[in-house]
């Protein structure tokens, strides 16, 4: 059993990071998003399949007669088409709570040492895992840069993969904790008579018309300046505006005074999520709390993370701007 990082290692991960010598074998596109891989088991199988594809390609370049290994028929469908991109360069792999980065560390090419090979912010890394036999010395992690989602594969030197995985998992935990603290609101004012609508996914927009949360003037001014904020808009009108998966907008509820709703298309359906807690008036999702609605939308949009709420999963891909009304002359 691999021990957890000690206090000194946690400090290193929070600061400059922990470094390992490795070979960056290469990468392969992943066409499945985290949303498509809802179970941890499937995510791990996809990483193992990607590791196998990259390692097999790297070995086949050296040994064309290499015997094939049986593939995972389900996971292979989620790995991108086309040939893996093979690098085979020796690197210093640095794991920190901010990023996983690789820099040249080849004794045969000292003039290149220290040069950056790749750097992936931890907030854009969705999953990491180790390979199976005969690839038990390989580690893969899935990272997304813009629209390019790939599994990057490294071979560790003189260190167990389980130890590096321990550091990666701890780094992701530290990153999530820091993000949560930065996004946590100081205080959100609320009225004494909240709506009786259940928090989270909007089941039905009903409520006491005298029930209302108060939003600070500064927060409201900031919200009203956002192109994706439509003000007072009915559920039906919102659904007509959201055409493609990932389309989203934010609106004021037409039936619950003071409630702010995020509407987004998830496949064939449009989902509606109440953004203000029914009891406290706090701006939140099931995963995080925020100081303002603008903070919430910016967080999920910039980090390309789906919003989870009960059985609802909404990806914020394409903000739908409100239609500006031009007054007649």
From TrEMBL:
Q: Which residues cross the membrane?
A: none
One Pfam family linked to the record:
PID
Give the span(s) annotated as Disordered: 179-213
Ordered alphabetically, the record's keywords are: SH2 domain
The SH2 domain extends over 228-320
Question: Which GO biological process categories is it annotated with?
Answer: intracellular signal transduction
Q: Which InterPro entries match?
A: CEP152/SHC-Transforming (IPR051235), PH-like_dom_sf (IPR011993), PID_Shc-like (IPR006019), PTB/PI_dom (IPR006020), SH2 (IPR000980), SH2_dom_sf (IPR036860)
> What is the protein name given in its UniProt record?
Shc-1
- What lineage, starting at the top, does this entry show? Eukaryota, Metazoa, Ecdysozoa, Nematoda, Chromadorea
